[in-house]
Amino acid sequence: MERRFKVYVYGEGEPPMAHDGPCKNIYSIEGRFIQEMENGAERSRTSDGERAHVYFMPFSVTWMVKYLYKPKPHPHDLTPLRQYVADYVKLISLRYPFWNRTNGADHFIVACHDWVSHFLSTFQLFVFPLPF
């Protein structure tokens, strides 16, 4: 029987979009969680994806909005954000068997930004908005 819940953290991606996030202000939980999973979660993190219960994709929605979103000329064009997520999923699904086993049902991100539902809805990722 497994004694501890294990999380596999993908190593793909480059800062600032991946492996980094805001650690101050309103969206700080996103950056703090990424930082903890990268540097301090020895007891719950595994480097063996076969032993993992869930898989963490360490990209920052806040930084995606900051660096990829261009409000002009089309303020509702989220194509660059959607493309980043699609490229990330494609990369990990080609390199590892984990995404393909469940079509991503056991994969997660941590996102505080309210835009997450606009561009992740194309994938089978569960997005639970807060009720307030």
TrEMBL record:
Exostosin GT47 domain span: 2-117
Its membrane topology: Single-pass type II membrane protein
Listed GO MF terms: glycosyltransferase activity
Keywords associated with the record: Glycosyltransferase, Golgi apparatus, Signal-anchor, Transferase, Transmembrane
Keyword Metal-binding: no
PANTHER family for this protein: EXOSTOSIN HEPARAN SULFATE GLYCOSYLTRANSFERASE -RELATED, OS04G0109900 PROTEIN
Name the UniProt record assigns to this protein: Exostosin-like
Keyword Transferase recorded: yes
Subcellular location per the Swiss-Prot or TrEMBL entry: Golgi apparatus membrane
Cellular-component GO terms for this entry: Golgi membrane
Organism for this UniProt entry: Trema orientale
Similarity section: Belongs to the glycosyltransferase 47 family.
Main subcellular localisation: Golgi
